[in-house]
Write a structure and sequence with these properties.
The protein is an alpha/beta fold. Helix content is about 45%, strand content about 5%. Strands 4-3-2-5 form a four-stranded parallel β-sheet, sandwiched between helices. The chain has a two-stranded antiparallel sheet with strand order 1-6.
């Protein structure tokens, strides 16, 4: 179901830092910048979103759930292009100045106003089916690694490989359209460590010395990302008794997995004999994050998620945190290691 209750701040944001928290940590503009003139960074982001319009238009055209989809897809491209041009002229147009969240929100508003709810659904269904078909193989390969820290590193690499399935990127959407992608091949082609930000060795030490009481994982994309990346990692956390909360979007956005979809995936999380895949899933909870965008804003989460997260001692934000500065807002008792894998393929 979709959350209709009032959104609240994530309970583990530190105070008094909470009042200074912003979901976008990129310095789009400074106090000295002219408020009526877009900054270079804002223009770069506007251009980035402009370049994604053709791929969104193409997906919208093929949405069979919407009457006159091709004509409405053309309207989407026109209206959203005009909005981006307005922001170039005056950054305070449309509730600006621009940042990633505003640009995403405006794009989703245009799509929903025209009747498009989930333009990536057919692609998601195809990728979900492919991912489910090889899930047992991925689990078996991970289980064959006897050394715990090596297995952890392999699981983290699996998250990176799965997160490549992100149709919010114009370049990646084009690759999917032309060549598709293989999860196992992506694992093999990951850029070697050290990554852009790489605290994996520190995390390995913590992993070997303790088991967490409760972990909250903010999940990202459908397909290989959630099924082959996050679920095997969550399974590893569940093994020693950690309670795991998977937090997913309330509404579709790009190809992000939603709360109802995640419940469906978990119901299929079985081996060939129909039993849970060698792990007790009684400690696995699914939460509606209250989010409807591809970027998570910890200042606004569902009351359900806030309640479930209040006693967590491990927080993982996958895919939606583009800069590591967010770690400072989550306090010393939480996960304070950062992995940022900038280039997904070598």
């Amino acid at each position: 179901m979709e959350s209709s209750s009032e959104l609240v701040p994530f309970p583990l944001l530190m105070t008094p830092i909470t009042s200074n928290y912003r979901a976008c940590t990129i310095p789009y503009r400074f106090p000295s910048d002219n408020p009526r003139k877009p900054t270079t960074t804002e223009l770069q982001w506007i251009d980035l979103f402009y370049s994604s319009i053709p791929s969104f238009k193409k997906r919208a055209e093929s949405d069979t759930t919407v009457a006159d989809a091709p004509a409405k897809a053309q309207k989407f491209a026109q209206w959203y292009s005009e909005i981006l041009e307005d922001l170039k002229k005056d950054p305070e147009n449309h509730g600006g100045p621009s940042d990633c969240i505003l640009l995403c929100r405006l794009r989703e508003q245009v799509l929903r106003e025209l009747g498009f709810r989930d333009i990536q659904k057919s692609q998601e269904d195809e990728e979900n089916a492919k991912a489910i078909s090889i899930f047992e193989d991925v689990v078996r390969l991970n289980d064959a690694i006897e050394d715990g820290t090596r297995r952890l590193e392999n699981l983290v690499k699996g998250i990176f490989a799965g997160n490549i399935f992100d149709l919010g990127s114009a370049q990646l959407a084009e690759v999917f359209s032309r060549d598709r992608m293989s999860f196992l091949a992506s694992c093999q082609n990951l850029v070697s460590r050290p990554w852009v930000f790489d605290d994996l060795d520190t995390f390995k030490v913590k992993w070997s010395k303790k088991s967490w009481k409760k972990a909250v994982i903010f999940v990202d994309n459908s397909g290989a990302d959630i099924i082959l990346g996050i679920l095997p990692f969550a399974r590893e956390l569940l093994r020693p008794g950690t309670q795991v909360v998977l937090a997913a979007n309330s509404l579709p956005s790009i190809n992000d997995v939603t709360y109802p979809e995640l419940i469906e995936f978990i119901s299929k999380w079985k081996d060939g004999s129909g039993k849970p895949v060698a792990v007790d899933t009684s400690n696995l909870l699914i939460a509606n994050s209250g989010n409807d965008l591809p970027v998570i804003d910890l200042a606004s989460v569902s009351q359900e998620l806030a309640y479930l997260s209040s006693d967590a001692d491990l927080i993982i934000l996958e895919g939606m945190v583009k800069h590591p500065e967010v770690a400072q807002f989550l306090g010393g008792r939480l996960y304070d290691c950062v992995f940022k894998y900038n280039e997904v393929l070598s």
